[in-house]
Amino acid sequence: MFFKSFLIKYGEIGIKGKNRYLFEDALVKQIRHALKHVEGEFTVRKEQGRIFAESQGDFDFEEAVEALQRVFGIVGICPVLECDDLPVEELAVTAIDYMNEVYPEGEYTFKVNARRTRKSYPMDSMELNSFLGEKILDAFPKTSVDVHNPQILLNVEIRERIYIYSKIIPGPGGMPVGTNGKCMLLLSGGIDSPVAGYMIAKRGVKLDAVYFHAPPYTSERAKQKVIDLARIVSRYSGPINLHVVNFTDIQLAIYEKCPHEELTIIMRRYMMRIAEHFAVATKSAGLITGESIGQVASQTIQSLAATNEVCTLPVFRPLIAFDKQDIVDIALKIGTYDTSIQPYEDCCTIFVAKHPVTKPNRNIIRRDEEKLALVIEELLQKAIETTETIWIEEER
Ligand code: ATP
Ligand code: MG
């Protein structure tokens, strides 16, 4: 195989000093983790502000690139030809081999961009640019040099070793997971919440998740769907601890004791309270939901305010200003959409009122919640105690 290594490019703006080391170390860790699932053996190392992922033998190129494209923090993936120190003539032969292999059509404009950090190398960058440029022109007569807008920018870096690359495959951007703490995602089987989790993980936040299950009103297949979604999200975010809360008794109590037009709001408030309980217990610093203004009755500004007020942790709603189609586009891109649209009921659809309040008055909601006073503490306790926690990790 021609390429054995990747040079990983990452965004550096705004990360300086100590933060930069944390960023790089987290990125190395995430790259190792992602490549663990790829056919082949890799070593990942940090060297002078660069990260290299190097294969020990044959590997599946496409699969490796795909895995790296899921690692937040990476902005570019460059398949790189790495060689030991070479005298200039041999370097030219190697550069020609490279061009021949990567651009066999032999017809393009190009520019050589040499960088010499090892000052003992016999030619400096400018000399290398013209020397290698001429050699390539001689080898491929249909090419020409364009210094302003070349089709191919051939990078040649003279460090301890020598690195040749030109292709930059885009990475996902964002920040490496683990650089910005952990949050608890309220994960339903819908389209929105997996996308919300993905977006927050992209900012470097590790995820745990909580799902409210209401058997027998919601089926085992609905639960399996949420597990499947968590697994897809974990391909980007890394492993997720998914808490499956048995929510049936609480829902039934609300249904029995509270006004039906307030069911959804009161139910959402208990979801938030329980999610916060698990967040605090497992050291998550915030909650994440897939809510978006006005999408449904429980997502008007007044409804959001009513569900928000029961939490003390910050609640992150990355989709708050997104149109449904924009959310669907991301769901398609990250691969959650097909699973999300499987037709298994979620617990909210069974207990929805015909005319839910759209502008809940918080004083009234608080007052109506009082109707649960005699039973709720015990029900909450039981829901928490019977919660099943599932470790979700990407499968090979
Ligand atoms: P989604 O597509 O994420 O299900 P939705 O548009 O169906 O969202 P709602 O049902 O109002 O909206 O839920 C709003 C948010 O509340 C969800 O995005 C999710 O974060 C959370 N949520 C709703 N139902 C559940 C559940 N059964 N378990 C965990 N979280 C839930
Ligand atoms: Mg939903």
TrEMBL record:
Catalytic activity: [ThiI sulfur-carrier protein]-S-sulfanyl-L-cysteine + a uridine in tRNA + 2 reduced [2Fe-2S]-[ferredoxin] + ATP + H(+) = [ThiI sulfur-carrier protein]-L-cysteine + a 4-thiouridine in tRNA + 2 oxidized [2Fe-2S]-[ferredoxin] + AMP + diphosphate; [ThiS sulfur-carrier protein]-C-terminal Gly-Gly-AMP + S-sulfanyl-L-cysteinyl-[cysteine desulfurase] + AH2 = [ThiS sulfur-carrier protein]-C-terminal-Gly-aminoethanethioate + L-cysteinyl-[cysteine desulfurase] + A + AMP + 2 H(+)
Pathway info: Cofactor biosynthesis; thiamine diphosphate biosynthesis
CDD domains from the UniProt entry: PPase_ThiI, THUMP_ThiI
Superkingdom of origin: Bacteria
PROSITE patterns tied to this protein: THUMP
Keyword Metal-binding listed: no
SUPFAM superfamilies: Adenine nucleotide alpha hydrolases-like (SSF52402), THUMP domain-like (SSF143437)
A GO term from the CC aspect: cytosol
GO MF terms, alphabetically ordered: ATP binding; CCA tRNA nucleotidyltransferase activity; tRNA binding; tRNA-uracil-4 sulfurtransferase activity
Domain THUMP: 62-169
Function according to Swiss-Prot or TrEMBL: Catalyzes the ATP-dependent transfer of a sulfur to tRNA to produce 4-thiouridine in position 8 of tRNAs, which functions as a near-UV photosensor. Also catalyzes the transfer of sulfur to the sulfur carrier protein ThiS, forming ThiS-thiocarboxylate. This is a step in the synthesis of thiazole, in the thiamine biosynthesis pathway. The sulfur is donated as persulfide by IscS.
Family: Belongs to the ThiI family.
Descriptive protein name: Probable tRNA sulfurtransferase
Lineage: Bacteria, Bacillati, Bacillota, Clostridia, Lachnospirales
Gene (name only): thiI
